[in-house]
C-alpha cells in the first residue's frame, strides 16, 4: 500500500550500514533521511538528490553516492521521506511503498549476518514504482 507518510526502518544495535539511492525518473528526486533514538532525539540526517535514468542520487552535503552509519549501541530508527520536483521547482511528496525487508542469517560457508531494507516511490501515474529506490544495508561483523 502506498503512502506519502515517511517510511521507518529499524537500525539494529551493533550493526554498521549504508544507504544507496537509485533514481529512474525525469523529475528530480529528493530523499530526506533522519535517524532518531527511542526517545525520538535526532541523531543525524542526510539529504540526497538525483535525476535521470538509473542514476545514483548524491548526498547534498558531500556529493557521495552513499551514506554510512553505525554502529549504534542503542536502538534507533531511520525515517525515509521521498519527494520530487514538478514544474516550477515545486516540491511534491511522492507515493512510497515498503519497506521491503530481507534478513540473512549466518551460514557456515558465509557467516555474515545482514538485513536489507528497500523503500520504493512513484512520482507520477505510470505506477512503475521505480522512480526512486532507497536501499539500506545493515551488517554485523
Topology:
Layout: E1 7-11, E2 16-37, E3 42-56, E4 58-59, E5 66-69, E6 76-86, E7 90-93, E8 95-104, E9 113-122, E10 132-140
Antiparallel strand pairs: 1-6, 2-3, 2-5, 2-6, 2-10, 3-4, 6-7, 8-9, 9-10
What does this entry look like structurally?
The structure is a single chain. The chain is an all-beta fold. The protein has one domain: Sandwich (Jelly Rolls), CATH 2.60.120.400. Helices cover 0% and strands 65% of the residues. It has no helices and ten strands. Strands 1, 2, 3, 4, 5, 6, 7, 8, 9 and 10 form a ten-stranded antiparallel β-sheet that branches. A hairpin with a 1-residue loop joins β3 (42-56) and β4. The model has no long low-confidence stretch (mean pLDDT 92).
